Amino acid sequence: MTRIKIFSLLFTALLYISCSKDDYKLGSEIDPYLRFNFLVKADNSPLEYPAINGNLVPQSTYENKSVKTLKVPVTLTTRSLKEAVTANFSAETSGVANSFSVNPVNQLSFQGNKLTDTIYVSFDKRWTANQSINLKLETVSNPDIHIGNLNSTYPNNTFKIDLGTIATNYTFPVTQYNVKGEVGETIDFKVNFPNGFFPEEIENANFFKFQNGFEYSLTHDDFGDNRSSVTYHLTLLEDLQNDDARYESKITLINIPNYTATGNTNLTIVKPIKSPRDIQANPASKFTDPTNAFYLTYGEHWFNNNGNCTWQTFNALTYPVVVTKDDPNAILYSDKGTTNPNDDIYHDAFKIGFNVSSGTNTVNSFGLKRWFSNESNSAAISPGFNITSALEFFPANGNNKTEGTVLVIPQDITIGSSATNTHVIAISGEGTYKEISAGLYEISFELKLTNDKLFGGTISTQYRMYNNKTYPKPTALSISCPKEVTL
Predict the structure, then answer these.
(1) Please, which contacts does 204-209 make with residues 24 or more away whose CB atoms are closer than 8 Å?
(2) pLDDT at position 29
(3) Which of 240, 400, 464, 468 could connect to 396 by a Cys-Cys bridge, CB 3.0–4.6 Å?
(4) Cα 323 to Cα 341: distance, rounded to the nearest angstrom
């Protein structure tokens, strides 16, 4: 019993020595305190509330290079509140006062279990160099609440936003849309602004170049408070009903002062040749497996290898093209085991594409990475390596289940070595497909690439693709072959 008493006294003494006024209270309660809780991810982008990450430390400064609204969370650490609490803050800048605005203006509120409120910092004008915005927690309605962390090293009662060099740019998230060709038909597409935009700078700007194969009108939604994208509406003014003709219009993003076109800069709107096809033939299903996120198709192309033309191998993750049930090529893939038709999944019976299963890297669609040196594998710079709608099949007689023709869906892809060095390449081509042995399908086609700067026009080569990694080696060809080019 004596030893237990001595140990208890020693523990109490040590506890008293190790604690200070800057530490949390021990026991069931802590002193309530209020502080900025701005967290930054590894890529230097803010972790926006209500997302949480216990491994991140709240920051007291942040260099902001985006013109999108910046969200600065303020957190009150306490148990559930019985009465509402308000806190006042100030916002000052070293630059032009009306270049930004904050919401709320100067007061935050907390009640019940709502223990985080957010200051929204909006940027209304392009700022000048070396400008900063300083936020400071000034007062709190409950005198028992401490302003800042309960330590003197990292109080987080102030937050400084250093305004860095602005890099505003735009891109198309989707590169092609098909239309039925009916007057009044409308498609919606977006222009993405990864770092935001200033409405007054783009309101009357002409950042499109047009190559029109049919008549249409173009409008856009109000800019509103969303500075990440602008939604446009393209409405057909012409009846495109010649089923034997292909109609195509192209919209290209161009550079304007303060804004740079990056990534996907071309959008193609197509009314394709309409050939009668039986969806039950479903040739796309021969080259995809939706149950396997890592399903590969395998290919070879006739390409230069150290001065010699040879068949060289490649593979790519391959997926069906998901469509809505009213798409003319839609075939039901899954009803998800329910009677609710709204959750049904439909695939295009005649198209396949290549893409990553997740993340921001790229696959090797058509073995294109062999065509270039010093290429970037990032989808932000070389989105063209992921071709999500790449091949279209036309069964023989419209319903043959084992053979037919194939089309490389004409489109523009973007590939580059850096954000400032990208190239738009037009691809096209055609060939055949056939079941060459039980369950083994071969696609034989020519792929054409067009870019004046890289290739001096159009170059092409032969391809073979298979739905299994075991296949007969293609016979050598007696034709020339392309070689690697430097981007």
Answers:
(1) 205/256, 205/259, 206/256, 207/170, 207/253, 207/254, 207/255, 207/256, 207/259, 207/261, 208/251, 208/252, 208/253, 208/254, 209/251, 209/252, 209/253, 209/254
(2) 59
(3) 400
(4) 14
Contact 216, 257 (CB under 8 A): no
C-beta atoms surrounding 411 within 10 Å? 20
Give the C-alpha separation, 136 to 119, whole Å: 11
Both structure tokens of 412? 């523009």
Tokens 């907390």 — which residue?
A: 110
Condensed to tens digits (0 to 9), the pLDDT of residues 161-210 reads 999 988 899 999 999 999 999 999 999 999 999 889 999 899 889 999 88
Torsion sign (Cα): 234, 238, 241, 247: negative
| Separation between Cα atoms, residue 383 and residue 258, nearest integer Å | 23
Identify the band that residue 213 occupies on the pLDDT scale cut at 50, 70 and 90.
confident
Mean pLDDT to the nearest integer, 60-66: 93
Contact of 161 with 120, CB cutoff 8 Å: no
Strands (E), 272-344: 296-305, 308-323, 330-334
Distance CA 264, CA 251 (A): 11
DSSP notation for 237-289: -S----TTS-EEEEEEE--BTTBEE-S--EEEEEE-------GGG-GGGGG--
What average pLDDT does the segment 376-405 reach?
94
State residue 261 phi and psi, 5-degree precision. -80, 125
Bigger pLDDT: 354 vs 31: 354
CB 253, CB 265: distance < 8 Å = yes
Q: Is there a contact between 314 and 364 (Cβ–Cβ < 8 Å)? A: yes
* Residue 77 Cα distances to 12, 138, 144, 246, 304, angstroms: 27, 17, 12, 64, 65
pLDDT band at 378 (very low <50, low <70, confident <90, very high): very high
Look at the block and give the residue holding tokens 């290549």: 354
pTM of the model: 0.54
- Across residues 344-367, what is the average pLDDT? 95
What would the two tokens of residue 251 be?
């919209």
CA atoms within 13 A on the CB side of 43: 2
Model pLDDT, residue 182: 94
Q: How far apart are CA 309 and CA 313, in angstroms?
A: 13
Q: Which two structure tokens, joined as six digits, stand for 33? A: 């305190």
Q: How many residues can be counted in the chain?
A: 487
Average pLDDT, the chain: 89
Cα angle 300, 304, 306 (rounded to 5 degrees) comes to 125
Cα gap 467→362, rounded to integer Å: 20
